[in-house]
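[job 0412] stage=complex_fold ligand=D-xylitol-5-phosphate status=START
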Amino acid sequence: MDRELGSGYLLAPSILSADFARLGEEVERVVEAGCDVIHVDVMDNHYVPNLTIGPLVCAAIRPHTRAILDIHLMVRPVDALVPLFARAGADIISIHPEASDHPDRTLALIREEGCRAGLALNPATPLACLDHVMDRLDLILVMSVNPGFGGQPFIPSAFEKIAEVRRRIERHRERTGRDIRLEVDGGIKPDNIRAVADAGADIFVAGSAIFGAADADGGYRGVAGRMRSALMAEAEWRAA
Ligand code: DX5
Ligand code: ZN
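[job 0412] stage=complex_fold status=DONE, emitting C-alpha cells
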C-alpha cells in the first residue's frame, strides 16, 4: 500500500497512547478530528525496553482509515517484519540504523515491498548514518525522545539536529530535485510544535498530547486545532 506523502505540515498521532480496547474507533476519531497520518509504534522488548504490537494490529486498523499508516519499527532484527507490515497495509516503514546489519539493504527492501522508506535517528545517533542512503529515503524520522515510551519530555538538543537534517534535505533536493519528509517524534505538544516546525520539521508525531486529550477541552478536534493554529501562525510568520 502506498499513499502520497504530499507536502505541507502533517499531524501524526501515535497510537501508542490510544485506547487499545477501541483502537479502530480511535483511529477514525483522530482522522475525523483533522489528523493526517497514523503513527504506529512497533516495539519488541529487545531493541527498546517495551513490547507493543505486530502486523496483525496494522492489518486490523487498515480498513478503518484511508490515512497514511506510518510504521515505526523499533525492533531488531528488522528485515523479516518489513514484508509482513507491507502486506498488512503500511504506507511508510521507518527503521533504526542500529537495528539492521545492512541498513541500505533494509531500506531497499521497504521500497521493494511498495512502501516509503524512513530512517529513524535516536538522540545519540550521529547524522553520519544519512551519508550514503539519502537516495534510499522518503522520510527521515528525528527522535526527540529516547525510543520505548510515550509521554516523555522533548529533548531540546533535537532542535539543532532537526535544523541540520533540514539543511541536508535541502541540499539533496537541489542536487536531485527529490524531496524527503522530515518527521519529528517524541514530546511534541501544542506549545512546542511551532518551534519544531521552525527548526525544519514537516511531519509531527504526537501520542500523549493527542490521545491524552480525549476528554479534555475540545477533545481530539480541540488539540489538533491548537496544533494546526500554532503551525499556521508559523507559516504566516514565514510568509510575512
Ligand atoms: C517512542 C515513540 C513515539 C511516542 C510519542 O518510542 O516512537 O512515537 O509514542 O509519544 P509522545 O508524543 O507522548 O512523546
Ligand atoms: Zn514513534
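Helices lie at 23-32, 55-61, 81-87, 103-112, 158-176, 193-199, 208-211, 219-239.
[job 0412] exit 0
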